[in-house]
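We modelled the chain as a single entity of 347 amino acids. Its sequence is:
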Amino acid sequence: MDKSRTVRAAAAQIAPDLTSRDKTLARVLETIREAAAKSADLIVFPETFVPWYPYFSFVLPPVLSGREHLRLYEEAVTVPSATTDSVAAAAREHGIVVALGVNERDHGTLYNTQLIFDADGALVLKRRKITPTFHERMIWGQGDASGLKVVDSKVGRIGALACWEHYNPLARYALMAQHEEIHVAQFPGSMVGPIFADQMEVTIRHHALESGCFVVNATGWLTDEQIRSITPDEGLQKALRGGCMTAIISPEGKHLAAPITEGEGILIADLDMSLILKRKRMMDSVGHYARPELLHLVIDDRPANPMVTAHTFLETAPTGSNTDGHQTPAFDGNTDQRIAIVRREAR
């Protein structure tokens, strides 16, 4: 893209509707319209915003969380679906790139999924959080590295990570090595307290500096009424306050607008894309500041698959000759050792 361009970015800190996917979706579509009216080229929503982040799992013991977990299944998003079609249509109508976090339902499993829709409505990225954190492991399955991609869009090359994936330096480096220009960060918000917001700020500013990219981060907001609906315990309610840091960071690690740490709002900032080159001239972590002959990343970006049919494996595997001259599948050290492969005896 033209590095002299300016991209107007928006980050939404709003509350979901904790009762209905469709009502939360309505909030998303309304916010897209509002951001577009402010000439935004990109808008980022919080982690698993549709239908809502599973706050219940942070304060309820597993034995009491089954009802809410099942309700989350019922309201979760399948991809594609009428829900994703609506977001795609809004992106296309307003000519805006949309980054949306959803609880994705894939048959019997939920995933923490990040969706990026280009300005023409095309879904250019669907990725799943590779390792859910702490309480989240009771809610979501694990993603794979097939989603650790940087994609081209109207606003530039975009990469995305969710929450504490930013503490996985190799996951971040995978995106850096693909030369991301705008990094989408999504956190739940309204959790843990001020220390969470402080840690988040350090994390996203560091990534901006190390990657030499812009970071657009969105966190969610819960009202007092919503917090009380999750738990009547006043002590536990304290764990569902604070932790908001909706922010837009430059490649020089600076806030481009005052962050939103309380309440609802849309943060807007203009991204001067020439700052990317200004930063990387001094320090390019995957270029002149790298030493790949000493240190480099190897990534298995194959989608995780619970089954591979034997005939497919036999047709695609390399072959070798055994002692009687028959061709047999040769051992492949790169074969996915996570999958049990059926090997038939050659005849």
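As a brief sanity check on the tokenised model: The mean pLDDT is 92. The radius of gyration is 22 Å.
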